[in-house]
Amino acid sequence: MTGADKNAINLRHKTRTAKHKQVVDKRIAAAKVDKGLLLVITGNGKGKSSSAFGMVARTLGYGLKAAVFQFIKGKEEVGERAYFVRDPNMRWERCGEGFTWETQDRDRDISAARAGWEKAKEALADPTVHLVVLDEQTYLVNYRYLSLEEIMPAIEARPAMQHVVITGRAAHDVFVEAADTVSAIRDVKHAFRAGVKAQQGIDL
Amino acid sequence: MTGADKNAINLRHKTRTAKHKQVVDKRIAAAKVDKGLLLVITGNGKGKSSSAFGMVARTLGYGLKAAVFQFIKGKEEVGERAYFVRDPNMRWERCGEGFTWETQDRDRDISAARAGWEKAKEALADPTVHLVVLDEQTYLVNYRYLSLEEIMPAIEARPAMQHVVITGRAAHDVFVEAADTVSAIRDVKHAFRAGVKAQQGIDL
What is this enzyme's class at the first EC digit (chains A, B) (predicted)? Predict the structure, then answer.
């Protein structure tokens, strides 16, 4: 490539990106609303809870309070919990007793879900909590452990600037419709299906 | 519902979940391989970088080392960086100068990408680093700032137990094929399109 060719490419790049900047800047200027968001991270792919925990790190990074309620996962210690609970702004509640096929006791699962939800409602009523993560909450609805009528009013009545993230597969339409942001993670490929064990730092 | 109905439901639940547990346990037992994974988190939806940062928290939670290379994002301070850099096991490099439409200077973007990639290669050669995040690296290839021939050998020759996460839209097929786990995040709904500004703790 000659120097003249390169200059031409660079000039085209500059013109094109300058035009693009106008479009982007206009869109950013149009986004004026500040509000507490409801985010739903669903789908079968890897990254739903991880993504919520990334937002926990962001929140704690500003010295703001975050609360995580894990509705399904059991009592085993995992990396993210070990890491975040060191922060005085973090509240972390393990409300579940494990997956249904681990407990095999529907009444016990329902009691655990209800007890967890009572705790989550405290955070959803507390304006000092900037972010509430309802991890794997979709299953509570899908398994009929809790009704949407029990869940939605607390989410809708939360403080105006509080963000809520709901994670889990197969999010109910009511969650999707109520949400400001919805991401559906598609499982294109997963190491587990190729015989790889859950890995520290990645899966737990 | 009578007590007898409830008992019948609970018994059915126990039988079904016990059967499911056999299937799950068998699958878990079959997953015997321990290896450093290559994960690709792509798609247009919200949650790609957040998900990588969740894995950073998991890694640091075990007292293991993590390294993040941000190839596009500019120099503004964000929550996740502020949070993680407090940890002595964290290396965080902001290699980008912002999006193309911000810099409007292709030569400068390419130099920044190359300098960043040289640093990332150090981490990819260091067996004490448990997790390497190549944040928004897909764009380096898509914009032709770096070739796959420059990138793939360093990823393939990394230490056997090191995990690598590549994030960014429109991941090249070569990344997808080389990866152990691929998640594609679909943008079902995004608050920004409804006029909501980027929110602390959620987007930055």
Answer: transferase
Question: Nearest 10 degrees: CA dihedral of A137, A138, A142, A143?
Answer: -20
Question: Residue A58 is nearest to which of B14, B32, B204, comparing CB atoms?
Answer: B204
Nearest to B66 by CA among B130, B15, B6, B1: B130
Q: How far apart are CA B127 and CA B67, in angstroms?
A: 12
Helices and strands (H, E) in chain B, number of each type: 8, 6
Convert the pLDDT of each residue in B5-48 to its tens digit. 888 888 888 888 888 888 888 888 888 899 999 999 999 999 99
Give yes or no for a contact between A198 and A72, defined as CB atoms under 8 angstroms apart: no
Q: Which two tokens stand for residue B74?
A: 């500019």
SS3 category, A80? helix
Q: Among residues of chain B, what percentage have pLDDT more than 70?
A: 99
The residue to which tokens 């704690």 are assigned: A60
Residues of B in contact with A13 (CB under 8 A): 100, 104-106
| Integer Cα distance of B182 and B171 in angstroms | 10
Distance in angstroms (rounded) separating the CA atoms of residues A92 and A56 = 11
Predicted confidence pLDDT, tens digits, chain A (204 residues)? 678 888 888 888 888 888 888 888 888 888 889 999 999 999 999 999 999 999 999 999 999 999 999 998 767 789 999 999 999 999 999 988 777 777 778 888 899 999 999 999 999 999 999 999 999 999 999 999 999 999 999 999 999 999 999 999 999 999 999 999 999 999 999 999 999 999 999 999
Contacts of A53 in chain B (CB under 8 A): 50, 53-54, 57-58
| CA A80 – CA B93 distance, rounded (Å) | 22
Of A20, A36, A39, the C-alpha closest to A28 is A20
- Tell me if A104 and B49 make a contact (CB, 8 A cut-off): no
CB B38 within 8 A of CB B177: no
